[in-house]
Amino acid sequence: MINRKNFITIGHAEGVSYLVLLCIAMPLKYIWDKPQAVNITGYLHGALFVAYSVMLLYFFLTKKVSFKASFIAVLLSFLPFGTFFLDKKFPKF
């Protein structure tokens, strides 16, 4: 079931995967020549980002979450540590 709690959880998971990709997988690839880390982490992060985006679109279209709140949620997904602030920024319903 799609609800706010699940959205926040997916957002946090997406944020963690983004940080792992940037701080662990990318150095492994470019410093220690281990591209497998980016392949695995990148796939996981991509899947979580798609789930996050689909859930956000669902809330925008069905729960009538404002354009401003939705736009802020999109911006937060592109910032490291950004999705950890969803709980405070995303409207409660």
Total number of helical segments?
Answer: 4
Mean pLDDT: 91
Radius of gyration: 14 Å
Low-confidence runs (pLDDT<50, min 5 residues)?
none
Structural class: mainly alpha
Order of helices and strands: HHHH
Main β-sheet description: none
**How much of the sequence is in beta strands?**
under 5%
Distance between the termini: 15 Å
Our count of domains comes out at 1
Give an account of the 3D structure.
It is elongated, with a radius of gyration of 14 Å. With 93 residues, it is mostly helical. The protein has helices at residues 4-30, 36-62, 67-78, 86-89. The mean pLDDT is 91. The chain is 75% helix and 0% strand. It contains 4 helices and no strands. Helix 1 packs antiparallel against helix 2 (36-62) and helix 2 (36-62) runs antiparallel to helix 3.
Which terms would index this structure?
93 residues, mainly alpha, 4 helices, 75% helix
What topology emerges from the helices and strands here?
Blueprint: H1 4-30, H2 36-62, H3 67-78, H4 86-89
Helix pairs in contact: 1-2, 2-3
Summarize the structure.
75% of the residues lie in helices and 0% in strands. The chain has 4 helices and no strands.
